[in-house]
Amino acid sequence: MARKVKRNIATVSLFTMDNWLKICIVVVFAVATTGNEEATPAKLLFSKQILNKYLVEGMDIVIKYSLFNVGGTAALDVQVADNTFGPQDFEVVGGQLKVTIDRIPPGSNATHVVVIRPSKYGYFNFTAAEVSYLPSEDAAEALVGLSSEPGQGAIVPFKEYDRKFSPHLLDWLSFAVMSMPSLVLPYALWYSSKTKYEAILTQKKDK
Amino acid sequence: MSCKFLIAFSLAVCLSVVSASSCSNPKLSSTSFTTQDGTILTNIAYVSQFKLSCDGEPADIPLYAEVGGKPLSVVKSKETNEYVVSWLEETKKAPRGNFEIKVYDDEGYAAVRKAQRNGEDTTTVQPLGVVILNHPGAYNGPWINSELAAVIVAFAVMYYALTTKTKLEA
């Protein structure tokens, strides 16, 4: 009886040793793979969009910058700078062209809107804005990226836009004033003779 | 003795770190801008720039903002030491009037997210400050086109003339 028990103990302990080794291997593998997923550095996708139907000199241009973090860690110290709009050609009326975002968590996005006004007309090539960020907390160097380019756009002079789209109220008023004589004069003549005729008619009736 | 000192020192450091990320006596001063011509834009932009001062000194803490339950990205401008909040609405649907932008710090925003997760009312969390942005409404073109108005007036005059003429002839 004792011998049997001894054998059983021996086989049981060997079984668990073997299993333990397998469990260890599995755990190490799992940790290694999950560890890699968590350590995926941050990667930002950056898009720049112009939200205008027409680009008119002296009227607002709305620019939307969107940053999306497709990496596994948060992007830190994200600095967005758009140096493509020189102060001689554009005036910034809303928002700022150089901004910093402290942290973009993984899988989330950040948007920023800037409103500018062009002070000159002509063809303008909307090029990319720059972004620099730290892909992880212990990153030594900042990664630099560029946004998407909206491309070339024609900034129309204000006179042309006004000619096409303004209500031209003053023009219509002057047209009305100029067309008045041809309508009002015959009407006035007819009206004066009509009242005279009616006056004579009533006088005759009274008589 | 040195052990106690070390504990006290570390506690003091912890406290100072915690207080650095929260703001006492917050004061917000803001300027806002909204685009007001809806005829050439597809979206109306609402932009609010504000400065936060804690105890009289300009603050550099991370902030979170929300307007109407919608979270907004808060960006910082290092040049002017301001925070900028911005969002877009479609021209046709862009509502006008006053918008309340609630600004939270780390703890406040964590409390808001917790309340949202539990389905509680988020208005119970006190924001660091509220920035009001006024949008007077965007110009979407005249109600009646001036050409249409001119055509209507011309038709009215013609109608009057014709009816008077037929009355006379009859």
UniProtKB/TrEMBL annotation, chain A:
Subcellular location: Endoplasmic reticulum membrane
GO cellular component, one term: endoplasmic reticulum membrane
Superkingdom, taxonomy of origin: Eukaryota
InterPro entries, sorted: TRAP_beta
Keywords: Endoplasmic reticulum, Glycoprotein, Membrane, Signal, Transmembrane, Transmembrane helix
Membrane spanning stretches: 169-189
Chief site of localization: endoplasmic reticulum
Function: TRAP proteins are part of a complex whose function is to bind calcium to the ER membrane and thereby regulate the retention of ER resident proteins.
Family: Belongs to the TRAP-beta family.
UniProt-recorded name of the protein: Translocon-associated protein subunit beta
UniProtKB/TrEMBL annotation, chain B:
UniProt entry tagged with the keyword Cell inner membrane: no
Signal peptide: 1-20
Compartments where located: Endoplasmic reticulum membrane
Keyword Ribonucleoprotein among UniProt keywords: no
Membrane topology designation: Single-pass type I membrane protein
InterPro entries in the cross-refs: TRAP-delta (IPR008855)
GO cellular component: endoplasmic reticulum membrane
UniProt entry keywords in alphabetical sequence: Disulfide bond, Endoplasmic reticulum, Isopeptide bond, Membrane, Signal, Transmembrane, Transmembrane helix, Ubl conjugation
Pfam families: TRAP-delta (PF05404)
Major place of residence: endoplasmic reticulum
Family: Belongs to the TRAP-delta family.
Its biological purpose: TRAP proteins are part of a complex whose function is to bind calcium to the ER membrane and thereby regulate the retention of ER resident proteins.
Subunit structure: Heterotetramer of TRAP-alpha, TRAP-beta, TRAP-delta and TRAP-gamma.
Protein name, per record: Translocon-associated protein subunit delta
Species name: Daphnia sinensis
Taxonomy of the source species: Eukaryota, Metazoa, Ecdysozoa, Arthropoda, Crustacea
